[in-house]
Amino acid sequence: MASNYVKTFVDVCSYLQDPCHVARFQKICGVIGSFPVKPKNLGSGESEPDVPGLRKRIQQGEQCSDVNFGNGAVGDAASSQPNGMQSDRSVGPGGTSAAAGVESDTVRSKPLRRNSLTEEVGQEFLIHNKFLFYLFTFGTELGNEMFFIVFFPFLFWNIDALASRRLIIVWAWNLFLGQSTKDMVRWSRPASPPVVKVEVFYNSEYSMPSTHAMTGTAIPFCLFMLTYGRWQYTFLFGFSVALSWSVLVCVSRVYMGMHSVLEVITGFLYTLLILAFLCPLLDPIDTFYMTDRYAPLAIVVSHVSLGLVAFSLDSWSTSRGDTAQALGTGAGAALATHVNYQTGLLLDPPLSSLPLTLQSVGVSAVVLSVLRFAIGVAVLLVTRMAMKAVTIPFLCRVFGLPSDNVRQARQHMRVELPYRYIVYSVVGFSCVCVVPLLFRLVNLA
Questions:
Q1: What is the DSSP letter of 430?
Q2: Contact 74/124 with Cβ under 8 angstroms?
Q3: What percent of the chain has pLDDT above 70?
Q4: Which one is catalytic: 21, 128, 259, 338?
Q5: Active-site residue 128, yes or no?
Q6: What is the pTM of this model?
Q7: Is 259 a catalytic residue?
Q8: 385-424 residue pLDDT tens
Q9: ∠ CA 116-122-125 to the nearest 5 degrees?
Q10: C-alpha to C-alpha distance for 151 and 167, rounded to whole angstroms
């Protein structure tokens, strides 16, 4: 009986892992690839990337008989087209669209960003539903660096500092566990064809589980758990927002062609397990960071140790850098939390004032929030830019490495790990301690 359940579970996982489901979903959403009519012959002697599981996925893709790979007409122009989107309104001699079967509102597009490791620009594809393209592009951006460098500070400076700093703890641990699991499992991205790579920035990373799905689940649900009862809103409202946020991010990763259905579901469930374990510990962890005299030492040792573990799992990739970046940000924010408490710079509202309510949205409140946000983010961006410009050349000199090729220099662990920690720990510390102090000095607190 038990063996039957195991077999059924394995069969279900294999079914959900099939890239054909990703390709079908993309086709339903109006994404058409620029593949040749017939996929490349694997026996032609062409070299293939040495990625475990890649051959199996491509062979699975060849079995998708009901998925239209597209034609070569779109792909032929791919090399001459810049990244971005262009309306396909060219008209042929007969008064019809130059690309057969392409509607007048169809948009030609290529991935907006190059592959972070190989500099690959990706193939051109056609977008038949621009609303879904923009919706899922927004959804996938909810898991990228620029969103976090905007969201966490806005929450900290304008709404709830306690929720923000605890959310950073969850984000750092969640990303560490997700990226480390990726580098241990080592599953490749869904095969293309049949999958259309709407995004290629993370295409060289492993894919199981989806860390976008993990952060897109951890952030809204943890925020909901941290603020429900602390702020005045209904359970249904908070849960609906969290679930909608999570679903949007998860589905966007399938739309982008970056993950299979199984990888997204696994990321979602994995995060719920992490939250169930971690959320009850947030209060004692936060209290320890604020009050214990040895907290700074424990913060530095624990976060650096986790980074060393992550960097030892696989060769250089953006996933290792993202892990160190999250851990560095978490370390900087935790150290700033200790400094704020010890100096009395930023104290949490007393329990007697709970539940908190949003103030009436007046012109002065909006202007104040916008000023805080604009000045604060500008400080963080300048800080990050300045630290990047100084740190990498300095580390290259220390370790005797050439600094003329930044990408190559960062593939060395002794450069990438301290670079990420130094830069983003300073950014995290600035967000939680330096910028609030600046707000006090200019009467914006």
A1: I
A2: yes
A3: 78
A4: 259
A5: no
A6: 0.81
A7: yes
A8: 999 888 888 888 888 877 677 667 767 777 878 888 899 9
A9: 140
A10: 11
